[in-house]
Write a structure and sequence with these properties.
The complex is a heterodimer of chains A (484) and B (266).
Chain A lengths: L1 E3 L9 H14 L8 H8 L19 H22 L53 H4 L2 H4 L3 E3 L5 E4 L13 H15 L14 H19 L11 H4 L2 E5 L5 E5 L6 H4 L2 E3 L36 E5 L4 E3 L4 E5 L3 H10 L7 E10 L7 E6 L7 H6 L1 E5 L19 E6 L1 H7 L10 E8 L8 H10 L12 E11 L3
Parallel strand pairs in A: 1-6, 2-3
Antiparallel strand pairs in A: 4-5, 7-15, 8-15, 9-14, 10-13, 10-15, 11-12, 11-14
Helix pairs in contact in A: 1-3, 3-7, 6-7
Chain B lengths: L1 H8 L3 H25 L13 H13 L12 H6 L1 H12 L4 H10 L5 H28 L7 H15 L2 H9 L10 H32 L5 H16 L3 H25 L1
């Protein structure tokens, strides 16, 4: 069985052989189905369409299985190239868990050093800060929110895999893991470069390690809670088929139901997962840094639809500078929010950032803050921090590539606990809710620990301040959800 | 309480009920019109598809003092008097395919005004369709002579061609575009009604061509209406809208060829 390991924990030649394989694949003719450029174009491409170009699936419950299959065949192609380059026959794709701690939050050095064309892992079209050893801000890279999810289907907080793709849905319904860390890390690394766009992202060799981490989160989530985190059983999900190219260049297909048991069906596992057989315990040793348990009781959520209790009256346009929206709450809504924000109340309060549209992804991540005072210091920023959003894929909201309907982006953050803390500690206080958006930056390599996080929150990248392609947020609203 | 509970879980229930009632009313109107036209003018299921609109319009025109009756030219007053009939038809035919948007409106409005918001959306949506029906389809459907088979065939061919245009695709896509809904006051009411109007306009642009053959044939018979309702719903609900449009285009083209062949043989 092939073992996928955290890239920063490697002390062998895994990346050296990855680089050799990438180089070999880049040298293949572009029309070769196993070439680097063809494999990337399966995710997305701006070139004239070829068979299986532009297949990537986002914004639905097929996001995770499609990318698992994509990685699986890509890994087979790379492994073949690794073996031909003299590498090990059990070579497996590493994953990059940028959320473990700051030491893991920068790209492995071979991806940016040396910064020249001879390095097949180097890409100039990335965040300059990341290419200098900058680090993914910790709240953004963390998998805690994803591992704390209670169900697979759905696009609300605590719902991992995305909304059920069904006729008539009106928003792109990305699940928790697709919004964060997936989407935000795309923009943290890309910052308007390759990783910020469907059509270019997979050309960056770090893309595959990033998605391997997303796949690891799914597999790890499945294994949490002794089977209480099952995948959907819907035949429409399990029976969905997707096509790829295998190592010999032939077209192959898999159904979702065929990729749910990675160890028995796909013959790979992750270093954080328990060993499938007693014979190989030494190969499956989880790194100490990875949290093995999430302190949230598994509950099957669902219940009624969230109730909207307050909405903004104006569109907010983001161009790289701090902006804010005010969400008025009348007496009736305030009562709902106050009660739902209590620790004893089972209901949840959501902040919905909706009707997000723009012609192109500016590649900027934004921190979202509630009731932030003017000129906040870093500690105030942290106290009012609700979450992070990105706009990966925004350009396809009204201009989808394939034969599909357009769907504006939508982000949903759970804010009950934050509202409680901004009140008297027991429940939210009074007054409208002010929602602030402030650009986030990759942490510079020289900062450390909490200082780094606060610096990222406080200091927008100088070159990103203003003048970016606009992103319109049509509405910000608060809703209350009873999951029972 | 049980009824209120059902409305809480499924806020669109009364809209769905309205569509069903519209179909029942249309069926009754058809049967009544058939009875008043006398035997021999056609069967209940649409061999003579002029019943509702033609008799309905003319009857209303007469009722409105427009000097209607069979064959009389219809005044603008009589056309306006037919608006309720078009409202009934539009509710029956177009509301089913727009139910996902109605639900979107319900779930994204302030919870305690969600039913009002749905009504405001439907006012905007239906107003556009009623205007289209009264101003465009009405005169076609109520003309004295049914258009010749050749004209009908051309209209079907035109409808098939329209299905394949980029403008049609853009309109179909616009049918899926949600608008930010405001919370309270006139801004909320106006915004929601305007959202309905925009959705209705996109729907008219998307579907106008396939409505023309209906107007030319005077065809508002239940069977034909049911077919159009199913086709529009399939197209709007499809996750692959371009493929759905092409299939509808093929259907319309086949119908056009059938009409032309019938003309040649006949």
């Amino acid at each position: 069985m092939f073992l996928r390991r955290e890239v920063q924990s490697l002390n062998d030649d895994t990346l050296k052989f990855y680089a050799a394989a990438v180089k070999a694949m880049k040298e293949r003719p572009p029309g070769d189905h196993t070439s680097w450029w063809y494999q990337a174009a399966i995710h997305g491409s701006e070139e004239p369409p070829q068979p299986l170009y532009n297949q990537c699936v986002h914004g639905s419950w097929f996001f995770l299985p499609w990318h698992r299959m994509y990685l699986y065949y890509f890994e087979r192609i790379v492994r073949d190239a690794v073996i031909k380059a003299g590498g090990p026959e059990d070579w497996a794709l590493p994953y990059w868990n940028y959320g473990i701690d700051l030491a893991h939050a920068s790209m492995p050095e071979p991806f940016y050093e040396p910064a020249d064309e001879a390095n097949s892992l180097y890409v100039q079209e990335r965040s300059p800060a990341m290419n200098e050893g900058g680090r993914i801000p910790q709240p953004i890279g963390s998998d805690a929110l994803s591992l704390a999810c209670e169900t697979y289907p759905g696009a609300l907080p605590r719902q991992l895999g995305g909304g059920i793709a069904k006729p008539g849905h009106r928003d792109r319904e990305a699940g928790q893991v697709e919004r964060l860390p997936h989407g935000v890390v795309h923009d943290a690394v890309g910052e308007g470069g390759w990783m910020s766009f469907f059509e270019k992202a997979a050309k960056d060799p770090i893309f595959w390690l990033h998605h391997c981490n997303i796949d690891r989160i799914w597999a790890q989530w499945n294994g949490l809670g002794e089977g209480s985190h099952p995948n959907p059983t819907d035949p429409g999900w399990r029976g969905q088929k997707f096509e790829f190219f295998d190592v010999d260049g032939s077209k192959v297909s898999l159904t979702v139901g065929q990729v749910l048991d990675i160890q028995n069906d796909l013959d790979y596992t992750y270093d954080v997962l328990p060993s499938p057989t007693p014979e190989e315990p030494e190969r499956v040793k989880p790194p100490d840094e990875v949290p093995s348990k999430v302190d949230i009781e598994p509950v099957i959520s669902g219940g009624a639809d969230p109730k909207v209790v307050g909405t903004s009256d104006e569109t907010v346009t983001l161009t790289g500078e701090a902006e804010a929206a005010r969400v008025p709450i009348d007496e009736r809504g305030l009562e709902e929010v106050q009660k739902a924000s209590r620790e004893s109340d089972p209901r949840r309060v959501y902040l919905n950032i909706e009707n997000i549209e723009g012609k192109t992804n500016p590649g900027t991540m934004y921190g979202v803050y509630l009731n932030l005072p003017e000129d906040p210091d870093p500690e105030t920023l942290e106290k009012h921090y609700a979450g992070a959003v990105s706009f990966f894929g925004i350009e396809h909201g009204q201009d989808p590539r394939k034969d599909e309907n357009g769907h504006p982006l939508r982000h949903v953050l759970e804010v009950g606990k934050l509202l409680r803390s901004l009140g008297d500690g027991k429940e939210y206080g009074e007054g409208d809710v002010k929602v602030s958006f402030r650009p986030l930056s990759v942490e510079p390599p020289e900062t450390s620990g909490k200082e780094g996080l606060l610096a990222a929150m406080a200091a927008p990248a100088a070159e990103a301040a203003g003048g970016e392609p606009p992103v319109a947020i049509g509405r910000v609203s608060l809703s209350v959800h009873d999951p029972a | 309480m049980r009824r209120l509970g059902a409305l809480s879980c499924r806020p669109t229930l009364w809209v769905e009920g309205g569509a069903v009632l519209s179909w029942i009313a249309l069926a009754l109107a058809t049967a009544t019109a058939h009875g008043s036209e006398g035997a021999g003018t056609g069967s209940f299921w649409g061999q003579d598809p002029l019943w509702i609109c033609k008799t309905g319009l003319n009857g209303m025109a007469a009722h409105a003092g427009g000097g209607g009756g069979h064959g009389g030219g219809l005044s603008s007053a009589s056309l306006l008097a037919a608006a309720p009939m078009w409202a009934l038809m539009t509710t029956a035919m177009m509301v089913p395919s727009t139910l996902p948007t109605v639900r979107h409106v319900a779930l994204n409005s302030l919870w305690w005004r969600r039913h009002r918001a749905m009504a405001e959306f439907l006012v905007g949506f239906l107003a556009v369709w009623i205007a289209f029906g009264v101003l465009v389809l009405g005169p076609l459907a109520s003309s004295e002579k049914t258009a010749s088979g050749w004209v009908l065939g051309v209209a079907l061919g035109l409808a098939a061609a329209w299905q394949l245009t980029p403008l049609k695709q853009r309109a179909l896509r616009a049918c899926h575009r949600p608008r930010p809904l405001r919370a309270r006051g006139w801004r909320a009411s106006l915004g929601t009604a305007r959202f309905g109007g925009r959705d209705g306009a996109a729907c008219v642009v998307s579907c106008w061509a396939m409505m023309l053959p209906a107007g030319l044939a005077g065809s508002t018979a239940l069977l034909w209406m049911g077919g159009v309702t199913a086709v529009v719903a399939a197209e709007k609900m499809s996750e692959k809208p371009r493929r759905a449009s092409r299939r509808v285009a093929a259907l319309l083209a086949a119908a056009a060829i059938g009409v032309f062949l019938a003309q040649l043989v006949g």
